[in-house]
Amino acid sequence: MLFLQQLVNALMLGSVYVTVAVAFTLTIGILNFLNFTIPTLFMLAGMLGWALSSWGLPFGLGGPIHWLPAIMLGILAAIIVSLIVERFTFRYLKTKYGDSTEHAIPLVSSLGFLLIVENLVRIAYGTEGRRFEGPDADLTLHVGGILVRVPQLVSLLITVLIVLGLTQLLKRSRIGRGLRAIAENPDAANVLGVDTAKIVPVVFMLTGVLCGLAGALFAVNYGEVSPMMGEDVGAKAIAGMVIGGLGSIWGAVLGGLVVGFLELMTVHFIGADTVQVVVWGALLLMLIVKPSGLLGHNSIGKGKL
């Protein structure tokens, strides 16, 4: 029974990694660069949700607000910051330097945003972990002796709906066709009339939504936030993305679940201190045995999104 409980916990934890891994997959699969601001967006939603529900609006503009609108404002902040990153890592740099996706400039500039935002949060709220006061009621279901928390179940369902909705968006909508065209060949997409100036911000908006939701659900589920919360989740989401297959959304889903399973099984059978060794050992093994990942293809952006 304990093993089954750990399997359920692994599924719930894996859903967080899935959401962040899909966010990474969108930028690397469509724009071909690793967006380092993703862990920060995850952290920002959780930390601002805690700050607004505990301290209230800044500069004395208002007192603490209910945790639900607070966490929603945190998600909104993640979306806004993601769009600001797009403005200065792609739109401005592409205008100044040409096709910035062919250079390391977006990657380095996104790393700069990560460091700036993370340190601003540390300056404002300190470096220690904070208790996030979510739902007051005991929202725990007992199913055949297995405990399932309702917020975690809702988190899993939201993750599934997001991935299904995103898949349909990419396959059936005009925006999705534009995104897939950019992933295949940005120059050809421009020739065919795809307005990259309008389409590319959609990638960053979706990234902000995914990371904001993941950070909010993590705060509600586990009841704790910190300025460093995005680093560990972001690293494991990258591992899940690579294990599942670079550029493949369903690969990110599978890889995120695999990482969640590996982490909880390692804690159960070996100990928490060896989690990083097992997860990154699995990543290295995958790169040796099957570099394209479980569901990946040989070329990023070719017929996967």
Automatic annotation (TrEMBL):
Question: Where are the membrane-spanning stretches?
Answer: 12-34, 41-61, 67-85, 105-126, 146-170, 199-218, 238-262, 269-289
Domain of life of the organism in this record?
Bacteria
According to its UniProt entry, the protein's GO biological process terms are: amino acid transport
User: For this UniProt entry, which residues form the secretion signal?
Assistant: none
Location within or outside the cell: Cell membrane
Task: Please give an example of a GO cellular component term from this record.
Answer: plasma membrane
Q: Does the keyword rRNA-binding apply?
A: no
* CDD domains to which the protein is assigned, alphabetical: TM_PBP1_LivH_like
UniProt keyword annotations, A-Z: Amino-acid transport, Cell membrane, Membrane, Transmembrane, Transmembrane helix, Transport
Which segments does the entry list as coiled coil? none
UniProt xrefs under InterPro entries: ABC_transp_permease, BCAA_transport_permease
The molecular function GO annotations come to:
transmembrane transporter activity
How does it sit in the bilayer?
Multi-pass membrane protein
User: Member of which family?
Assistant: Belongs to the binding-protein-dependent transport system permease family. LivHM subfamily.
PANTHER family the UniProt entry points to: AMINO ACID ABC TRANSPORTER PERMEASE PROTEIN, BRANCHED-CHAIN AMINO ACID TRANSPORT SYSTEM PERMEASE PROTEIN LIVH
- The protein, known as: Branched-chain amino acid ABC transporter permease
Give the originating organism.
Answer: Pseudooceanicola lipolyticus
